[in-house]
Amino acid sequence: MTETTPVDITVTGTAGRMGQMLVQAVRENPACRLVGATERAGHPWIGRDLGEAMGGPAIGVKVEDDPLPVFARSRAVLDFTSPAATVAHAALAAQARLVHVIGTTGLEGHDLDKLEAAARHATVIRAGNFSLGVNLLTVLARRVAAALGEEFDIEIVETHHRHKVDAPSGTALMLGEAAAEGRGTTLAEARLPAREGITGARPAGGIGFAALRGGDVVGEHEILFAGPGERIALRHIASDRMLFARGAVRAAIWGVGQKPGEYGMTDVLGLS
User: What are the residue boundaries of the Dihydrodipicolinate reductase N-terminal domain, all occurrences included (predicted)?
Assistant: First the structure.
């Protein structure tokens, strides 16, 4: 591929709010080209021109419910759908040797195992958040956690709009994983259960989470290191969802030409 050849991209789940933003981000970037759009079977957008379905002029891309032929004409796929759909997409992306950019949240261990298997053949770029600021925050969280001892308790507080269905957010978990790595452990070992009722004293070395929901908040994340006599707070506020979409497009473009494997946004940004 030459530098002037645009990357052919498919967007999955195009009827959703994030799906439509991904479509917009692809179409506004001259380094890529929208060649496919998918939705679940039975969705009213199936068979329609995507531009018209989104309330604008026709763009010459039809919404389809079978991702296989759509993936076959693509170099990269942007996927902010559901865990089940993403796992299914990953198998198809592996067959087609595509760049699979994943922003889906709520993935569990068995889902991640399947994504790891798909990454033997596909370039999988998965992130809880595709913004530059959050990924810088992740790097800082890892370094601060490594510098501070267990006398500093770690709490991660995230706030999102009232329609978000999973908690903690993928970004909060990403921050927790970074902090755990900085302390030489894993989030699975350090994560504290949700608090309710008589919980007893906070155990040392744990990483706690609080999830707030309300209004139309795009996304706010704070990681708090609370020690004896002082607190350190690192915070990121997102005010425009398009920053996530543009970051995902940037990841797709970066991924073309990379070897199969699992990558994160810190790899894309050169922060690893």
Answer: 8-130
